[in-house]
Design goal:
Helix content is 28%, strand content 14%. With 198 residues, it is of the alpha/beta class. It has one domain: 3-Layer(aba) Sandwich (Alpha/beta knot), CATH 3.40.1280. A six-stranded parallel sheet has the order 2-1-5-3-6-4. Helix 1 links the parallel strand 1 and strand 2. The longest helix has 15 residues. InterPro entries: DTW, DTWD2/TAPT. Keywords: S-adenosyl-L-methionine, Transferase, tRNA processing. This is tRNA-uridine aminocarboxypropyltransferase.
Length: 198
């Protein structure tokens, strides 16, 4: 039998997070390129961003054809959030003049393997500068295990980016994430929950 979903947040009623959602006016437009397999994952955080940020768009796909929106973005002020050797660190004070001109932030939503696949298949991304962080904030999202130590959920990565680019207060986004974690772990046996929330 299909579970009844909340009409607003689209989570199951027993994990509804509406009470924690706040509308946040972000100046930098966030474009999330989401691997199709992420959509069905209950613990996916991209949809939390879409519920909170007033200027956020999720585009599903894997390649140039799916992500044709990239052709319409301003090349000089759009950046891709991805750690590589050429990335500008958003938390580097020497880069502040570059950072304050950013108008669009592209984020790839998927496991490291799927994100890498999107990058390989979507050559349109090559036209944009990449950005990353020197110092990662503490990962708060322990309910979804990642293979790399430098992993953040999509929500955490965007919250930290917007904080560094436009001084947007990340607390309301972290509150929604905390609510999701609480709802997703509320029915776990204590010994299982302890593994996630230690």
């Amino acid at each position: 039998m299909a579970r009844t979903l909340c009409n607003h947040c689209n989570f199951a009623l027993n994990t509804c997070i509406c009470s924690a959602i706040t509308n946040i006016n972000n100046k930098v437009k966030v474009i999330i390129l989401q691997h199709p397999s992420e959509e069905k994952i209950a613990k996916n955080t991209a949809k939390l961003l879409n519920l909170c940020l007033t200027d956020c768009q999720i585009v599903k796909g894997e390649n140039n054809d799916d992500f044709s929106i990239l052709k319409s973005l301003p090349v000089s002020s759009t950046v891709l959030l991805y750690p590589n050797e050429n990335a500008i660190n958003l938390d580097d004070s020497a880069e502040q003049s570059n950072i304050k001109n950013i108008t669009h932030l592209i984020v790839v939503d998927g496991t490291w393997k799927k994100a890498y696949k999107i990058l390989q298949l979507t050559t349109l991304l090559n036209q944009f500068k990449t950005v990353s962080f020197k110092q990662l904030p503490k990962n708060r999202y322990a309910i979804r295990k990642a293979p790399r130590a430098d992993s953040l959920s999509t929500l955490e990565a965007v919250a930290h980016s917007l904080f560094l680019i436009e001084q947007l207060n990340p607390a309301p986004l972290y509150n929604v994430l905390d609510e999701l974690i609480q709802k997703q772990t509320q029915h776990m046996p204590e010994h299982v929950k302890a593994r996630y929330l230690d």
